[in-house]
Each structure stands twice: as structure tokens, then as C-alpha cells.
Amino acid sequence: MLRLAIQKSGRLSEDSLALIRECGISFISSSYKLKTEATNFPLEILFLRDDDIPGYVQDGVADLGIVGQNVLVEAGFPDLEVEALGFSKCRLSLAVPRADAYASVAALQGKNIATSYPNILGRYLAGQGVQANLHTISGSVEIAPSIGLAEAICDIVSSGSTLLGNGLREVETVFRSEAVLIAQPNLSPEQTDLLEQLRFRMQAVRRAKR
Ligand code: PRT
Ligand code: ZN
């Protein structure tokens, strides 16, 4: 038996459920159940907040998970990734108020930057030789410059319309992300075999879509 953790409700949920079904795995899901068992594959599905998924898989509470690389790497467990899934593509970017001068990342030296990704951003800035004050906030990051909390932000961007709507301009891509399948490091031989079956099916689903 394998336990797979997926996001309960959010941007990853629909595509995660669709992928499992496209792998030929049947299960009954209802919005109030936090756990369900597949009827034709030894798989149990747990529905969790995406932020909790890397830790649960690292600890072996869940054997597998589907999560964005942004959340996985920020949580500090990049090595759990076993398969890129090709959906929920987005980027983590730095943005500044549209009217502000910005020549290069050096312009952020000594500035206040609001983000929900202090680890990824901190490493990026260190690599660029820039020292800034990072303010970690968990949501509505794009509002920070207009309320005087920060001179710049670093947040997830997909279409760019949220930045535009808040008077911000994307200036650097810090990290590119997509949904990935992750696995706990200590699977039994039987579980490893099931994981390989699952990956084989996922790869076939992706090939069929190309
Ligand atoms: O409740 P829970 O904690 O489970 O969910 P959540 O609110 O933390 O995450 P959710 O559902 O918003 O996103 C889940 C994952 O989807 C993220 O971790 C990313 O890997 C991926 N993803 C893909 C995105 C986006 N696209 C995205 N556009 N995550 C967030 N956004 C947000 C972004 O934060 C910004 O506020 O959408 C806004 C920008 O979108 P655009 O299109 O205006 O640029
Ligand atoms: Zn979350």
C-alpha cells in the first residue's frame, strides 16, 4: 500500500486528481473527506494543505506527494523529487513598483523585500552578492510596497496580471517551478515497485498529451 498526499483545495488539486484518474486509478472523492482509498490500485489518497506535504513525506507519514517545486525547495527537501509532472508551471520573481528605477539586482542592496519564500530568495540574493532585509509574510505579498512595508517583493507569478494590478513590474526570475511527484526516502521494496508502476503510467499520460 502507498499513501499519496495531494492538495486539498487549490491550484494543484484538480490537475492532481485528474492525473491519478488518467493513470487508470479509480476512487471516490468528496469535498468533506480528507482520505480515500483507490478501488483498483493499492493507493490511499490524503488531502492536505500543500505546505504540509513535503514534511509529511520526509517523515514518512505519507509515502508520496504532489506539490509545487517552489514549496518543496522552500521547505528544504529538494531531494524528495522523483518525477516532474508538467502542470502548475509558474515562476518565483522579484518585482518593484512600476515607476521605480531598476537597472539590475544590485539596486536591491539594503532594501526591504517582502516574500513568502525567504529561503529560496535568500540563497538567490547571496549568489548575486546582494544583501537585503527579507520580510516574511504568508499571503497578499503584492500589497507590501503600496502600504510601505517593502520596496520590492518576491512572489509566484503566472500570467503577471496580479503584479500589473498592483502597480508592480517583474524584474528578475528567481526560480522556475512546476508540480512534482515526491517520495519518502525509505520505501519498502514492494512500495518501490508500486512507485515505479505509478511513474510508468504518469510518463505514459504525459507522452500521450504531447
Ligand atoms: O491552501 P493551501 O496552502 O493548500 O494552498 P496555497 O494557497 O498555498 O496554494 P495555491 O493553491 O495558491 O497554489 C499551489 C501551487 O500552485 C503553488 O505552490 C505553485 O506551485 C502553483 N502555482 C501556479 C501558483 C500560481 N500558479 C499562481 N499564480 N501559486 C500561486 N499563484 C498566485 C501567486 O501567489 C499570485 O498571488 O497567483 C497570483 C499570481 O498569478 P498571476 O496569474 O496573476 O500572475
Ligand atoms: Zn499553501
From TrEMBL:
| EC main group | transferase
The molecular function terms in GO held by this entry are:
ATP phosphoribosyltransferase activity
Family per record: Belongs to the ATP phosphoribosyltransferase family. Long subfamily.
Q: What is this protein called?
A: ATP phosphoribosyltransferase
The answer to whether the entry has keyword Transferase is yes
Which top-rank group of organisms is this from? Bacteria
To which pathway does this protein belong? Amino-acid biosynthesis; L-histidine biosynthesis; L-histidine from 5-phospho-alpha-D-ribose 1-diphosphate: step 1/9
Q: What is its EC number?
A: 2.4.2.17
Q: Which coenzymes or cofactors are required?
A: Mg(2+)
Q: Which UniProt keywords apply?
A: Amino-acid biosynthesis, ATP-binding, Cytoplasm, Glycosyltransferase, Histidine biosynthesis, Magnesium, Metal-binding, Nucleotide-binding, Transferase
What is the native source organism of this protein? Hymenobacter armeniacus
Part of the intact protein present = 1 to 210 of 283
Q: Where in the cell is it found?
A: Cytoplasm
